[in-house]
Write a structure and sequence with these properties.
alpha+beta; Ribosomal Protein S5, domain 2; Alpha-Beta Plaits; 2 domains; four-stranded mixed beta sheet; four-stranded antiparallel beta sheet; 8 helices; 11 strands; globular
């Protein structure tokens, strides 16, 4: 019985500027994706004695939504539209909290595409993987990068990725998890667009000690209004000595950079 295991990792957003709403209903953004070692565990095995195309077995943290809505299941069925895939069992151990802005679901989707490609020897090109990834989420392509665990500046919908050199070797990243689940779509619905006079990539070139005053996550304003406890977590990180602290993505997780 064939089996393969991978470890989809999390990401944090250092700065997040929402620039404008696009004609296709999405938003143009600029943000820095920084990989984080927190990861899920994903395994695919050949299924036996089942009349289902794919079965999902979840462990660890609870995941909202039905099985058919899970991005790993969607990845399988997306590929199955073109390729003849035999039934599989997907085992997913969740350690990245859903609805936290850490990209856990997107990472699972990206790793599932790569895992299915390997499992079935599909020979997908990089462009084909990107095509399938974009159908499942704007940040899914980030987790397909051939040079993982390096920061990327993300523009467009979050899918235009450019390697970005920033030295965080003298810092460790602390995560905090307010007990709030935030839908990205709802966060966008409440967002108030603001004008940014300086591109995020230029702000990130400034000394890290100054980031506290110049690097913003545009979602914080309205998310903090609805969920003030998240702001309290951010404030606590500064009290603990963080050089920079922020909510990641559309929340609810927050992180702090601490000198080693």
């Amino acid at each position: 019985m064939a089996t393969t295991v991978v470890y989809p990792y999390a990401k944090i957003n250092v700065g997040l500027h929402v620039l404008e709403k696009r004609a296709d209903g999405f938003h143009n953004i600029e943000t820095l994706f920084v990989p984080h070692k927190l990861c899920d565990i994903l395994e695919i095995t050949d299924a036996r004695k089942t009349d289902k195309d794919v079965r999902l077995f979840l462990y660890g943290l609870p995941v909202p939504g039905s099985e058919s809505e899970n991005l790993c299941v969607k990845a399988y069925r997306l590929l199955a539209q073109k390729y003849k895939l035999t039934p599989v069992d997907i085992h997913l151990y969740k350690q990245i909290p859903p609805g936290a802005g850490l990209g856990g679901g997107s990472s699972d989707a990206a790793f599932c595409i790569q895992l299915l490609d390997k499992h079935f020897s599909l020979g997908l090109t990089r462009q084909e993987k990107h095509h399938y990834a974009m159908q499942m989420g704007s940040d899914v392509p980030f987790f397909l990068q051939s040079a993982p665990f390096m920061p990327y500046m993300a523009t467009g919908r979050g899918d235009v990725l450019t390697p970005f050199s920033v030295d965080l070797s003298e810092y460790h990243i602390e995560l905090r998890f307010p007990k709030v689940w935030i839908s990205t779509s709802h966060a966008y619905e409440g967002l108030r667009l603001k004008k940014h006079n300086t591109a995020l990539k230029d702000l990130l070139l400034q000394p890290i000690d100054s980031w506290k005053y110049i690097i913003e996550n545009d979602f914080e304003e309205t998310v903090f209004e609805k969920h003030p406890q998240i702001e309290q977590y951010k404030t606590a990180l500064y009290t603990e000595g963080a050089v920079y602290a922020s909510m990641t993505g559309s929340g609810s997780a927050v992180f702090g950079l601490f000198r080693i």
